[in-house]
Amino acid sequence: MTDKATFLATIRQALAASTDAAPADTIIRDYRVETDEKPGSPAVIAEFVEALEDYDVQVLQVESKQVPEAIAQFLTDTHSHSVVVPEGLDPEWAKAAARNGRALCTDSAENPVNKMDLAHIDAVVTASRTAVSLSGSIVLDSQPDQGRRIITLLPDVHVCVVRCSDVQPTVAQAVSILSKHPERPTTWIAGGSATSDIELVRVNGVHGPRTLRVVLVTDC
Predict the structure, then answer these.
(1) Which of 10, 58, 163, 164 is least enclosed by beta carbons within 10 angstroms?
(2) Helices (H), 103-180
(3) DSSP for 197-212, written as a single string
(4) Which residue, 166, 158, 201, is CA-closest to 58?
(5) What is the pTM of this model?
(6) pLDDT higher than 80, residue 63
(7) Which helix (H) or strand (E) covers residue 188, if one does?
(8) How far apart are alpha carbons 52 and 216 in whole angstroms?
(9) Of 142, 139, 126, which Cα lies nearest the Cα of 190?
(10) How does DSSP assign 66-105, residue by residue?
């Protein structure tokens, strides 16, 4: 018997011997679904910011009228000279992204920016669908103000606008929101891209933006 056959036979025996598995039509949901805190509450936002900062993410908490200035500041601070935005991004946010002579291009499913060109663009600015305070995660679901997944993977800097009211205490609550449109591709972001697989040495920017900056909108 080959090594492969032996390996598969062992798996079959283990599966056959297992009697504790739940029926296929039964989904056990004994995990925590929600907390005592409401989405977007001060405690939830404080937890969210703490989690983001633990990932070395800079956060600016601003009112909605201050979002353009915050976007421009983050792009200047990260020395970004070119930026891509999704077609449905707020026009004032897109205008702010183009300040100080930054080259601006707009991406959409109908008129996509070539991936080779995207790889040479410094930054991307998007909105977001929801977020999770417990894990410091932000979720995009490919709507016009968030764009195609690829534009948030190739540029080195991602400036993401998150509304406080969209920050959920738990993953389950965020998934409940996303489940209303299961056909939409989702992108989950927790800090800048990093891996420690190679000799446990942290390497940034391996499979996505090296730098994440979050504009947190408080009056929403």
Answers:
(1) 10
(2) 115-118, 171-178
(3) TTTT--EESSSS-SEE
(4) 158
(5) 0.83
(6) yes
(7) strand 187-189
(8) 11
(9) 139
(10) GHHHHHHHHHHHTT--EEEEETTS-HHHHHHHTGGG-EEE
Give residue 79's region: left, alpha or beta (phi > 0; psi -120 to 50): left
Q: Kindly list the distances between the CA atom of residue 215 and the CA atoms of 17, 75, 138, 144, 160, in Å, as whole numbers in the listed order.
A: 52, 12, 12, 18, 6
For residue 11, how many other CB atoms are within 10 A of its CB? Answer: 9
Q: Which residues contact 173 (CB under 8 A, 6 or more apart)?
A: 33, 34, 39, 132
Q: What tens digit of pLDDT does each residue of 26-41 get?
A: 777 777 788 899 999 9
Sequence-distant (6+) residues with CB within 8 A of 115 are: 150, 154
Please state, in angstroms and rounded to a whole number, the distance separating the CA atoms of residues 85 and 63: 21
Secondary structure of residue 108 in the 3-state scheme: coil
- Mean pLDDT score, 88-116: 97
141 close to 128: Cβ distance less than 8 angstroms: no
Residues 131/167, Cβ–Cβ less than 8 Å:
yes
Q: What number of other Cβ atoms are within 10 A of residue 80's Cβ?
A: 23
